[in-house]
Each structure stands twice: as C-alpha cells, then as structure tokens.
Design brief:
alpha+beta; 4-stranded mixed beta sheet; globular
Length: 109
C-alpha cells in the first residue's frame, strides 16, 4: 500500500528525486511513497536514492500508453501492488492510460 503519491510526470532529472525527497521529509519509517515519472532516469535514480538514504526500493512498474494494468516488474523487488495515497484522487493500475513512464515505490527506513 502506498501512503503517498508523488506525481513527477513531465519532470526531468533530477526533479523526480528532488520531489520524492521533499515528500519524504519528516515522514515516519515504514511510509510508502510512489513516484510517477516519465523520465527514463527515474527508474534508476529512485532506487539509487533509496540505497544512499537507507530506504527500501519496493517495486518499479513500467507503463505504456494504452496499457490496462500490464506491467513489467524489477527482478528481485518485492512486487506488492501499490494502492492510492491520501494526497491523490485514487491512482490505480488502470489510471496509466495516456502516459509512458514508471511508477516507483519506496518504503522509508
């Protein structure tokens, strides 16, 4: 379950990670955040940020325009499905139509 959603679609590196760090500031350990990004670097930068900050990379889901829940998951990641966060209007697996990119979920350590 993702507690917080960070919509960084349309933003280029390093802004998705900067937005993630700002959203994570002050949140308790165990909180999950999902970053939505169209920047190809985010699928690598967010897990690297987790490693450097002592957080856990939970999963990365790739989305393609027109997909209805089809996803590619990172090998070795805990592929627990994300859920909507309190700050969004209910993003779920079917809301990926119309954008190409990644949903990267992290758990704060």
């Amino acid at each position: 379950m993702s507690d917080t959603l960070v919509d960084a679609r349309g933003l280029r590196c390093p802004l998705p990670v900067i937005r993630l760090a700002a959203a994570a500031k002050g949140l308790p350990a165990g909180t999950e955040l999902t970053v939505l990004s169209t920047d190809p670097a985010a699928k690598h930068d967010v897990p690297a940020w987790c490693r450097m900050r002592g957080h856990e990379h939970v999963e990365t889901r790739e989305h393609h325009t027109g997909d209805r829940g089809d996803e590619d998951r990172d090998a070795g990641a805990d592929n627990t499905p994300g859920d909507e966060g309190p700050d969004d209007e209910g993003w779920d697996e079917t809301d990926n139509e119309g954008w190409d990119g990644w949903a990267v979920t992290v758990r704060l350590g």
